Amino acid sequence: MIKVFMKNVKAQGLTATLKKTAAFVLKKMKMNARKFPVLYYYWKIKILMVFLPRSKNRTMRVLKFTVHYNDLRSLFMEFKDIFKNQIYYFHCENDSPVIIDGGGFIGISVLYFKWLYPNAKILVYEPNTRALEFLEKNISENKLDRIEIHKAGLSSNSGTVAFSDDGTDGGKISERGSTSIRIEKLSGTIKGPVDYVKLNIEGSELDVLKDLDAEQKFSYIRELCFEWHSFSQSAQNLDECLRILKKNGYKYLINHFDYVTNRAVRPPFHLEDATQYYLIIYAKKTDTMAQK
To answer: Residue 201: which domain range?
Structure first.
């Protein structure tokens, strides 16, 4: 730490280095101050799961937001990953970043982005009619602005497909689905710079990456984070996803969430065709990275 400080002093001067250091320390202090209320609500929701039925329409005050939801376990998992573990955190010098949220579900990720950047412009995609009701309510009742809702799923083409809705955050495009949804190409939306793209689209991530690659839209996207799904008895395609990222100038980081979300990745390993697990892939353009 001292070596880095002295290196910066030599390169930028003492005054500039002290200003940057003070700003960094202040930012860390603010982030730490936010952790305590997040932990309080994390444990509150976790305890409620012990005493309350999982599936029921409810309303809860969470941090500064009013949250409407219908599945308690989905709320817990999303709050754990998004607010407590901050899997979608990103740093942006601009306090009004442009964010695309693919697979918004009931809006926990939207609330997080607005918690992080209140002036952010967010385009959120959600095809599930039942989830859309909660998403719209959570946006309107919290008086959030600069949000554009696309009532559609994301894929490599546009049209209508079968959709399986199990009442949780795991609804997905499936030939065995009992309902139908509209799908769109994300490339059709991107016309200019996008600071952050988040995708949690239950197995359609490769289709979207292929679309963005074919239409040369990655040149607009600074950072992205997507959940990769290895479903039971399904072919894996992680290598194709990573190949597209590398081709388009991204450096990536791979994480397995935790053992609550991903019991199948806990050692000792047992891999079968029925094994199901998920990974989180975070990627950033190499030409935007600070040299250290």
So the answer is: 87-288
